[in-house]
């Protein structure tokens, strides 16, 4: 299979003026050349020249669909949304999800591949290659139509070098994902922490679109956060920013996978919900869960607790309320540290909806320092299970569209 990297297009977009124009067309199109010149400090001839290049490279097309103010209908510009595509990968704990999106972040193709429990580095990389080959082969687009590959991976990621430094649940270190995938596919590759890609997905295409200061919290097998400050993902000095799953909530709490005790993740992530449910049921509490598992209590999972809560099981409802309180305490700490406009909750645990969200909101209401802190908006993820994979596509789109105004 011959794969050709769209080097020319990428080099073109490296110009900040071109990508600024491209972003204005994305956000506000259909839009006229005159309006673009008005929105930037660029002269009309400069705008015309840059637009001409964007049309030549097929990123932008002309349309007559804009509003006419009488007289000759002006020509408007819009993104040629289905001309190029991006591949996004969400590396889960048991599955790897691959999506293909167009330039609007709309999913046009997807597959999910299983992942061995505790895979080694080579198995992880091999599954990535297999999935990418599959989506390229089954898609309508040719290899040259893909702008790049984005990867969302749990744990600590060196985003500058594209290396998964540490993935705690796989117990893997220093996987050079970018180097390997660039070698195999000759495309641009970007790697980022999965909570950060989830947040980026929501920021670009989901529930965080209008806000510059947003925190996304991914609550599933673990707990992580992505912090968007003034429209940019905050990394910290060593890419550790956002690891709120290891914020201590209870000094006497259960031991976490990191070795410390009472981390938020050890109290409120999916496995923690299951563990607590099993412990309490074994001590004699009654619940629908006993019937749902035919008495094999070790089969209780976080998902099953949600299901029982949905069916009105008061034991499960109470358990999720308690989980929501722990998360609410963690988020109150986060609000006092970062003061975001909005917090978006995603990941598997978030699927419990108001069973979790209401106690989170109540806890923040009780503990917030000021009225503004208490009223910080808490919303569920709009993109839900696709948020991280779509956000991984956003890592590549971010290279082409910039919102920096000239
Ligand atoms: Zn921990």
Automatic annotation (TrEMBL):
SUPFAM superfamilies: Actin-like ATPase domain, Winged helix' DNA-binding domain. It comes from the Bacteria. PANTHER family: BIFUNCTIONAL UDP-N-ACETYLGLUCOSAMINE 2-EPIMERASE_N-ACETYLMANNOSAMINE KINASE, ROK (REPRESSOR, ORF, KINASE) FAMILY. This is ROK family protein. The keyword DNA-binding applies. Transcriptional repressor of xylose-utilizing enzymes. InterPro entries: ArsR-like_HTH (IPR011991), ATPase_NBD (IPR043129), ROK (IPR000600), ROK_cs (IPR049874), WH-like_DNA-bd_sf (IPR036388), WH_DNA-bd_sf (IPR036390). Keywords: Carbohydrate metabolism, DNA-binding, Xylose metabolism. Gene3D superfamilies: 3.30.420.40, Winged helix-like DNA-binding domain superfamily/Winged helix DNA-binding domain. It comes from Pontibacillus salicampi. CDD domains: HTH_ARSR. The keyword DNA-binding applies. Belongs to the ROK (NagC/XylR) family. Pfam families: HTH_24, ROK.
């Amino acid at each position: 299979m011959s794969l050709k990297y769209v080097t020319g297009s990428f080099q073109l977009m490296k110009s900040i003026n071109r990508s600024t124009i491209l972003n204005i067309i994305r956000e506000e199109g259909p839009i006229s050349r005159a309006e673009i010149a008005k929105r930037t400090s660029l002269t009309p001839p400069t705008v015309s020249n840059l637009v001409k290049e964007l049309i030549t490279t097929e990123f932008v097309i002309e349309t007559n669909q804009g509003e006419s103010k009488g007289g000759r209908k002006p020509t408007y510009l819009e993104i040629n949304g289905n001309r190029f595509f991006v591949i996004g990968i969400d590396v889960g704990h048991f599955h790897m999800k691959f999506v293909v999106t167009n330039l609007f972040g709309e999913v046009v193709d997807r597959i999910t591949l299983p992942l061995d429990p505790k895979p080694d580095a080579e198995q992880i990389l091999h599954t990535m290659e297999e999935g990418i080959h599959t989506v390229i082969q089954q898609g309508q687009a040719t290899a040259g139509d893909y702008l790049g590959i984005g990867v969302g991976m749990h744990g600590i990621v060196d985003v500058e070098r594209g290396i998964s430094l540490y993935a705690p649940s796989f117990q893997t270190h220093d996987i050079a994902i970018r180097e390997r995938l660039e070698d195999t596919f000759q495309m641009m590759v970007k790697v980022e922490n999965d909570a950060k890609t989830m947040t980026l997905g929501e920021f670009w295409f989901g529930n965080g679109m209008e806000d510059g200061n947003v925190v996304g919290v991914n609550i599933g097998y673990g707990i992580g956060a992505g912090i968007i400050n003034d429209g940019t993902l905050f990394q910290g000095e060593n890419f550790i920013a956002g690891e709120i799953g290891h914020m201590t909530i209870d000094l006497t709490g259960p031991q976490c996978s990191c070795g410390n005790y009472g981390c938020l993740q050890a109290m409120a992530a999916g496995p923690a919900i299951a563990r607590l449910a099993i412990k309490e049921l074994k001590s004699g509490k009654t619940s629908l869960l006993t019937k749902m598992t035919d008495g094999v209590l070790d089969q209780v999972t976080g998902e099953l607790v949600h299901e029982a809560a949905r069916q009105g099981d008061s034991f499960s409802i109470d358990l999720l309320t308690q989980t929501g309180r722990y998360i609410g305490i963690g988020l109150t700490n986060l609000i006092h540290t970062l003061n975001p406009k909005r917090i978006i909750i995603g990941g598997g645990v978030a699927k419990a909806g108001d069973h979790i969200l209401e106690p989170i909101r109540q806890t923040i209401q009780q503990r917030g320092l000021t009225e503004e802190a208490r009223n910080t908006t808490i919303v569920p993820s709009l993109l839900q299970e696709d948020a991280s994979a779509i956000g991984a596509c956003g890592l590549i789109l971010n290279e082409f569209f910039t919102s920096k105004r000239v």
